[in-house]
Specification:
mainly alpha, 9 helices, 72% helix, 0% strand
Length: 209
């Protein structure tokens, strides 16, 4: 599967920024379908005409909301890895586990209700919706990230390992949003560590003497 094509972004004016900030908060807290343009405009302190002048439709606001979350997550992850992994300790195993640690930190600060992409997909499953490529693209990017990291650990089984790491990561985000049990992302990180150790041990066992 290829990386989904990302949509063209809206140029942000001051009024558009207020609209988007209000929409981001409301969409994440209440759900996309539950929030109408009247409420967004009221929360942003603008008229509906201004809202439509800036975005054209509610769908475009949804696109900007999700694209913005995705953009911030990618920047957050890059910064987290830079801050927590120095060159001497940035082993392939450490890089994988740092992704889980970054997700845990992000979830604590910005993700009380779980993954915005997973939540959005529960409401937007039609591939023709303009926000669908943002949702799919973010998850495809995460899979590519884990597969690339897995390639440094198990070159001959990178695709399988990457998918397994992805499943651990995404399952943890869902459990976090549902508040099923405490600290699921940390649990997933620990399980990923066990998995990586087993894969590494197996690779050593298969190595020729």
């Amino acid at each position: 599967m290829g990386i989904a094509e990302q949509p063209q972004r809206v140029t942000m004016t001051r009024a558009a920024r207020r609209v988007l900030e209000a929409a981001e908060r409301l969409f994440y807290e209440r759900g996309i379908h539950a929030v109408g343009v009247d409420l967004i405009a009221a929360e942003a302190g603008v008229t509906k005409k201004t809202l439509y002048d800036r975005f054209g439709s509610k769908e475009r606001i949804v696109v900007e909301y999700l694209a913005g979350r995705d953009e911030r997550w990618r920047a957050f992850l890059a910064q987290y890895l830079d801050d927590h992994l120095d060159a001497a300790h940035a082993t392939p195993r450490a890089r994988v586990l740092a992704v889980f640690a970054a997700s845990r930190a992000w979830s604590a600060r910005f993700g009380a209700k779980g993954c915005s992409m997973v939540n959005a997909h529960a409401e937007i499953s039609d591939p023709s919706h303009p926000a669908f490529p943002v949702i799919a693209g973010q998850k495809e990017w995460m899979l590519a990230l884990f597969t690339g990291l897995a390639r440094d650990i198990a070159p001959d089984d990178a695709e399988r390992l990457g998918r397994t790491l992805m499943l651990l990561h995404e399952g943890a985000l869902v459990a976090h949003g549902l508040n099923v049990f405490p600290d699921p992302v940390a649990h997933a990180r620990d399980e990923a560590a066990v998995l990586l150790d087993a894969v590494t041990a197996g690779a050593r066992g298969r190595a020729p003497n």
